[in-house]
Amino acid sequence: MNPEKWYQRQFKLIPPPPRNLILMEFNFKGQTAVVTGGTRGIGRGVSEALLKAGANVVATYQSNDKAAKEFAESRKEYSKCLDLRSFDVTKYTQVEDFYRYIEETYGGFQILVHCSGIRIDSIVGMMQESDWRKVIDTNLTGTFNTCKFAVQNMMRKKYGRIIIITSPIGKFGFVGQSNYAASKAGQVAFMKSLSKEVASRKITVNCVSPGFIDTDFIGDLSKEQKQAYLDMVPLRRFGSPEDVANAVLFIASTEASYITGSSVEVTGGL
Question: Domains in the chain, please, with CATH?
Fold first, then answer.
């Protein structure tokens, strides 16, 4: 048999794990987690995993009230533990007001998972200057705004877990995504610097870098585009939000106390 065909057959025999499966069990009872972009896609998967693990979750979003309402209605069993808040991560004063609410309502929090982000694709020669700025502002300035106030809170408590959802595109680059790639590479550099600044206060700062994950991003692609992306993945399947959430839960746990300044890839081998 042709070695390449044998290789492909072997990987086709590997089924993806069941959806909604939490492969590792952690206990976050008594802890509060903030998940920005926490009502859709990867962010929603992270919010659900933290809820199942016992955390109080404050899931934020910018403007998609419909998705937020659908999320809340689908998780009514966690209504006492789930708090949905809307604000724009690019607006410094809105972020400041949000953290003031967190302090007044919860007395602080232990975990920040920053998932907020956007893509506006175009090759550089055709890209609008406004599209460059919007992606950089949301993905990179939003990271600064969100992490700054989180750090101030966590430093007073001398404990915290900050996890930034980035992308391998920041390392590899991708045609038509120079603005997105720059913002994601910036997040990793930001994480490495911040992790050194706050380590003495027992605050860890890490990135989780998902590859092709089966969310709206994949769902909107044509059949040909999906296959082209799938052919790039050595494990021969798209990831799920649960795959990403499992990595996030570990890094957010006390078991990961010696991990900081790192970027964990959840890419299927890209």
Answer: 27-213+242-258 (3.40.50.720)
